[in-house]
Amino acid sequence: MKKVMIKKVLMTLAVIFVIIISLVGYGIYRFFNPFGELVNEEVSDSYFYSRDKEHIIYSPMGNWFSLGKHEMDVDLSTFKVLGRDYAKDQQYAYFKSRAINFQIDVPSFNVKEGYVPLDKNHVYVLVDDLYYLDDSREGFKILEDADPNTYVQLNYNFAKDKNFVFRNNEKIKEVNHESFEVINDEFCKDNNGVYFYWYQKPLRIIKEVNLSEVVALTNSCIRDDKYIYIHIGRRNYEEVDEVINIPFKDVETIKFFEDHAFIKVDDKIYYEGVILEAADAFSFEEIGYGYAKDVKYVFFNGKVIPGADSKTFKYNDIKYTFSDKNNTYKAGEVVKK
Fold first, then answer.
1. Three-class DSSP category at 124
2. What are the backbone dihedrals phi and psi of residue 329, each rounded to the nearest 5 degrees, phi first?
3. Which of 97, 205, 222, 261 lies 20 to 30 Å from 289, alpha-carbon distance?
4. What is the mean pLDDT of residues 298-323?
């Protein structure tokens, strides 16, 4: 009993010590903090007023201690934040802390979606993120043939104006401009079909999809009226590259777990796109870090752990261990005592 009390007292003192150290550290940080309030916290976390509010300071995410700070020579009365790393005054437009020396129209200069610079004449592409640190660097180029008045950034990969569809700042011709839409982060469509897209890889048409019924299930998965479509990048610890379809009867039964390698569809559990034959879909639950279990078995990365006791298997979030009544497990294997 006495040992327990001593342990509790020591733990309490340790917590108090950590709190005091944190408060002292924060106080020191605030004391040496070289700037005041954000100019426009809804638009950017990097442009600050100086303490006397007579200057503008650029500091990435306010992390001046690690990432530095740059006092800017601006016209304070007309200074306006346009995006996280963009601003302007009556004379110049700025990328981070540097005045942009590209031939832009400052009065009409603006930023869409927080990162797409444009003016009345052109849409611009940032080609060097370190441009603001070195006067010899060229930071921007014109996005050829893009119409700034109708240009819309659909997501990070695709954009569209009245004439063209752009992918990663290049015009593409393999899709129909008028009907093109982005479905989610991995699939898009036009009136000819649904396409899978991945970084720096050609669009891949998925011919069997019912185009009139296709909808997003997650940011990386779609379905039509009969099938779920998902890209598989790894299987059995090896890289693969395929878009598979999984049939379903009842859309309400589709469930994605935190580890998207597991999917519940109707009365089946899939792992990496393959049916997990041993799993009972109705009692199946994800534990985390590759582990799952049902009423009968414990699984690690889609494979049954021999001898593991499903009823008592659990994760200890204090010791960061997985165990049942008999053993502790690491990477699906029994840890030798």
1. strand
2. -125, 145
3. 222
4. 96
CA-based nearest residue to 112, from 129, 97, 131, 125: 125
For residue 23, which amino acid is it?
L
Q: Which residues contact 144 (CB under 8 A, 6 or more apart)?
A: 171
96, 70 Cβ separation under 8 angstroms: yes
Could you tell me how many helices (H) and strands (E) the chain has, helices first? 2, 36
Which tokens in the block code for residue 285? 């639950």
Alpha carbons 323 and 333: distance in angstroms, whole number: 11
Amino acid identity, residue 90?
Answer: Q
In the chain, where the domains are located = 1-32
Q: Which residue's entry shows tokens 């917590």?
A: 15
pLDDT, one tens digit per residue, over 212-259 is 999 999 999 999 999 999 999 989 889 999 999 999 999 999 999 988
Task: Measure CA of the first residue to CA of the last residue in the chain; give whole Å.
Answer: 28
Distance from C-alpha of 41 to C-alpha of 64, rounded to nearest angstrom: 17
Dihedral angle sign, alpha carbons of residues 85, 88, 93, 97: negative
DSSP 8-state assignment for residue 335 = P
119-174 tens-digit pLDDT: 999 999 998 888 777 776 778 999 999 999 999 999 999 999 999 999 999 999 99
Q: Which residue has the tokens 């940032």?
A: 126
Answer for the pair 165, 177: CB distance below 8 angstroms, yes or no.
yes
Q: Which of 299, 302, 294, 295 shows the shortest CA–CA distance to 322?
A: 299
Contacts with 18 (C-beta within 8 Å, 6 or more apart), sequence order: none
